[in-house]
Amino acid sequence: MEKPISLQKFSKLINIMAYKILDSCVACGTCIDECPVGAISEGSIYSINADNCVSCGTCASVCPNEAIVED
Predict the structure, then answer these.
(1) Is the separation of the CB atoms in 67 and 44 below 8 Å?
(2) CB-CB contact of 68 with 59 (8 Å)
(3) What is the pTM of this model?
């Protein structure tokens, strides 16, 4: 029996694009709390690690400023 692959590896196999955070980010923290894979880093403007992002869209759906878009 083959070992199942992680969601991160699967998203890369099917070439899913990661999300990115725009300059309109106000660093409210909503997206960090909602990201299921911990792909978002804090800063004056948050950033998404494309290698960890599984393109689920959760961050974009909860962003109150619509500052997260598909890359």
Answers:
(1) no
(2) yes
(3) 0.73
Q: Which amino acid is located at 7 in the chain?
A: L
Computed over its alpha carbons, how large is the radius of gyration of the chain?
13
Q: How far apart are CA 56 and CA 17, in angstroms?
A: 10
Alpha-carbon span 53 to 38, nearest angstrom: 8
- Per residue in 1-37, pLDDT tens? 677 767 666 655 665 667 999 999 999 999 999 999 9
- Decide if 59 contacts 40 (C-beta within 8 A): yes
CB 59 within 8 A of CB 45: no
Structure tokens at 15: 């070439």
